[in-house]
Amino acid sequence: MNREIHPKEGLIVKLTKANPEPLILAGKPWRLGPKWPGRRCLAKTRSGGQCQCPAMKGKARCRIHGGLSTGPRTKDGKEKSRQAVFKHGHYTKEAIENRQRIVREIAELEAWARAQGFNLDL
Length: 122
Ligand SMILES: [Zn+2]
Prior knowledge:
Elements: E1 3-6, E2 10-13, H1 21-25, H2 63-67, H3 75-84, H4 93-115
Antiparallel strand pairs: 1-2
Bound molecules: zinc ion (ZN).
Zinc ion (ZN) binds at residues 41, 43, 51, 53, 61-62, 64-65.
């Protein structure tokens, strides 16, 4: 144990990673225990639980789960990243506009048919 006797302050216990004794003496069994108020990593672990590590400053993940990543930087890298999340194109700008155009055309045709005297409410 890393202890020194200080002439005025008495027993000094140095707080190191390998020496949690000062925390235990202060009633805190570990530094990042369940009541720790900071932000935790949002990563899901392989066992289904949530990562218990503290998130990195300004980020939502710990250093193990991508907190160290700077993300794509180059134009090529950003494009590659964009392509990687593309699944089927159902929500692309073109696909959405195309569906809206079809709905609009059907409404126009129905209005025209009603004006011509067709009964569409069968
Ligand atoms: Zn994590």
